[in-house]
Amino acid sequence: MKKINRLLEIPKEVYSNSPNIILTGFEEMIIENNKGILEYEDYYVRINTHIGIVNVHGLNLKLEKMTEDNLKIIGKIEKIELESTSD
């Protein structure tokens, strides 16, 4: 399947469960292909993905938009940490 996708030049994020993180400045973050929120405070958000956990630290963090597998966080993003759970 991977070989066919490469031949057709389909981007990996389209056919995989790997998270795609889009950061716009220090004020907006979109995470595609997530599995849900584990913790949520106005200074800390912990998001589960298919390959690990994304920790977002900041100030006045808010979930502006959330769909089945995408979410948008706004606020002052100060630090992003990645925790791998895959071997």
Explain this structure to me?
By secondary structure, the protein is mostly beta strands. It has a single domain, classed as Immunoglobulin-like (Sandwich), CATH 2.60.40.2000. The protein is 11% helix and 61% strand. The protein has two helices and six strands, in the order H-H-E-E-E-E-E-E. It has helices spanning 2-7, 12-15; strands at 20-24, 28-32, 34-40, 44-49, 52-66, 70-84. It has a six-stranded antiparallel beta sheet, with no helix packed on it. Strand 1 (20-24) and strand 2 (28-32) form a beta hairpin. The chain is globular and about 40 Å long.
What does this entry show, briefly?
The chain has helices at residues 2-7, 12-15, and strands at residues 20-24, 28-32, 34-40, 44-49, 52-66, 70-84. The protein is mainly β. It starts with a helix and ends with a strand.
Describe the structure using short key phrases.
six-stranded antiparallel sheet; globular; 87 residues; mainly beta; Immunoglobulin-like
Oligomer: single chain
Order of helices and strands: HHEEEEEE
What portion of residues is helical? Answer: 10-25%
CATH architecture label:
Sandwich
Give the overall shape: globular
Q: Examine the coordinates and then state which fold CATH places here, giving the name of the CATH topology.
A: Immunoglobulin-like
Strand tally: 6
Compute the number of structural domains: 1
The number of helical elements comes to 2
Largest sheet: 6 strands, antiparallel
Taking all residues together, what is the mean pLDDT?
87
The CATH class designation is Mainly Beta
Strand line-up across the major sheet? 1-2-6-5-4-3
What percentage of the residues does DSSP assign to strands (E)? over 45%
Instruction: Name the structural class.
Output: mainly beta
Distance between the termini: 21 Å
The low-pLDDT segments are: none
What value does the Rg take, in angstroms?
14 Å
